Amino acid sequence: MKHWTIGVDVGGTEIKFGLFNEVLKEKWSIPTNVSDNGVHILSEIADAIAEKCRVMDISVSSLVGIGMGLPGPVLDGNIVKECVNLGWSEVAAAGELSGLLAERMGCSPAEIPVKAANDANVAALGEMWRGGGRSCTSLVMVTLGTGIGGGIVINGKILNGAFGCAGEIGHIICVEDEDITEKCSCGNRGCLEQIGSATGIVKYTKLWLSRSDMPSVLRQILQEKGSISAKDVFDAGKAGDEAAEQIIDRVTGYLGRALAGICAVVNPECVLIGGGVSAAGEYLREKVARNFKEQAFSGIKNTPVRLAVLGNEAGITGAAYMMISERK
Question: How many CB atoms lie within 10 A of CB 200?
């Protein structure tokens, strides 16, 4: 009987694995080998899975399949057009991994189904299944980290879009000229990522302080450390620093604006905030929720804005659920 599923979350520095029997039974990781334009990555994933199955005495006949989250747009559950962090371009990731696993486990590729999706979309699916969106079947998740990612789940299924680019919330252009520090990494100007990511918050904070003479602990931190972090900004805001509060209000205003726009299109049951910046907790959530409500279309103003809860397990959880859900 097929009852084991493995979720894989491929990052630029680490590949995380989770073994599921409806619930997470075991997790492990290996370093991401990006040498030679990432040509060894899928082979090393196959090695890690085959070895775990050997140690756990998991037969091919008991495997539902392998789900995989990848840091780039994915077409048809298989083809990655580009993964800059991995050095990949036009890789049939799911098909290749299925073939590599078949070689190692002595079976045909058809006996080990593999499906791939964008990592942020997979994380959203994981939060729907076991996390902050557990009561919902349709949700939008925004991940605030070094950049901004996003995932959209509609009726329990990932919304990929025609070219695998649905959910690129960080590249919604919504920032006004006066608050733009430079071009976005994507080449455009005014992307949400430029002000709402951890990197963007730091750059905007420096810009804001250069334009104001308002006293702030943030100036002291910059003088003493020579640098500042998004956490420093939120810690100062929580402590009542007026400059930090104004900076955060501006940042969360744009986050609320972008989420109001995307919710007007897909009308989810809830919005989730994840990623490293979400460690600011209820302080961040309340401000985003308020700004969202102020700018949202009347019919969606009461959409709940919640914090994601799975953290680093969201990717492996959603990747596994891609396969588990196909059996239901």
Answer: 28
CB-based contact 79:91 (threshold 8 Å): yes
Give the whole-angstrom CA distance, residue 264 versus residue 209: 34
The span from the CA of 198 to the CA of 107, in Å, is: 45
Q: Do 4-123 and 133-309 fold alike per CATH?
A: yes
Say whether 162 sits in a helix, a strand or coil.
Answer: coil
Which tens digits make up the pLDDT trace of 102-158? 999 999 999 999 999 999 999 999 999 999 999 899 999 999 998 999 999 999 999
- Report how far residue 316's alpha carbon sits from residue 126's, in angstroms, rounded to the nearest whole number: 8
Topology adopted by domain 4-123 = Nucleotidyltransferase; domain 5 (3.30.420)
Cα distance between residue 213 and residue 208, in whole Å? 10
> Phi and psi for 189 in degrees, rounded to 5?
-120, 140
- The pair phi, psi for residue 212, each rounded to 5°, is -130, 150
**Three-state secondary structure readout of 259-316:** HHHHHHHHCCCEEEEECHHHHHCHHHHHHHHHHHHHHCCHHHCCCCEEECCCHHHHHH
Global pTM value? 0.91
User: Which contiguous run of DSSP H or E holds residue 21?
Assistant: strand 14-21
> Do 78 and 95 touch, CB atoms closer than 8 A?
yes
- Helix, coil or strand: residue 43: helix
pLDDT single digits (tens) 19-57 = 999 899 999 999 999 999 999 999 999 999 999 999 999
Phi/psi of residue 287, nearest 5 degrees: -70, -40
Map out the domains of the chain as residue ranges.
4-123, 133-309
* CATH classification code of 133-309: 3.30.420.40
Contact 116, 72 (CB under 8 A): no
Distance CA 315, CA 120 (A): 8
